[in-house]
Predict the 3D structure of the following.
Amino acid sequence: MTDGEKKRKFIFDKYSENLLFLKSKNIIDIELKYDKTYICPICLDQFSETALDQTIENPLSLEDAPPKSLGGKAKILTCKKCNNTCGHEIDKHLTERMQELDSHKFMTNTEFTAKFEINGNTIQGKISIDENGTMTAYHMDKNNNPIKLQDYIKNAKKDTIINLQIDKKQVNPINLQIALLKTGYLLTFEKYGYSLILDNSYERIRQQLRNPLEIIYPLDFWFKAPLPKEVYGVPFIIENGLEAICPIFLLKTSASERVFGTIIPLTTKPIEEVISKFKDRFKVQKRFPVAFDPMNGGVDYLTDLGAIIKMKTWINNLK
């Protein structure tokens, strides 16, 4: 068995056991199709252990949250169909935006394409910045007209003024935000398992992830603010009127780290209402002074019945 096969089997067993546990304790009421069942958190289709076979039409595949290119690790499974629909094609917009921010700040350990212009003659090239901050510019033989390139080289003297224009990434701002929503939702599933995400309250998120060309979920759900590392993870916001799940995660490029938070609703009120209150708070205070509860960070919310009941009771009491 390969490392990938072992990992998929471990994750499958972990969450299929969570399903059986929750059902045996009457925490969830759902018919399971198989003795050992895994439910894809995005489409909610049920899969047996045979779906670990990567040669079938729609197997269960490893899913990174955040994206692997931004420091994430594969700790859950989604079906191949969902992975293809809301996988790389969404995540790449988030990755490229983070890299674009690095290039505009000329950060160390970055490399990006750019255009160089002398007296109206523009060529394509790239810039590399090493760990010491030394910047080196290169021209590209393949991407330039040979005659224009030779003319550029001829005129690029020591004291020549060269105009620089950093190439813009093809980033779709909506897909970028959907990638943040996907990360927040999957981190919620990773920590709390099926005790939360099977509720219909999360169907709008799932629809949004399955339909990235539409706007289904309000796009004001995320924020970037300085937050203490103590609250990184998937805490609950417990302040009156602002109750929500708040996945907070680090996105890492080769040159930088940025912290993002997302607002995932509880089952008690419409997400628009919660987001509106958050926006009002930010208008008054640019920081993020709200009351968090890490929900006992060291507790296993897949197997600890007491912790699960306490969490569900708190949520139900908000209604």
Notes: The chain has nine helices and 14 strands.
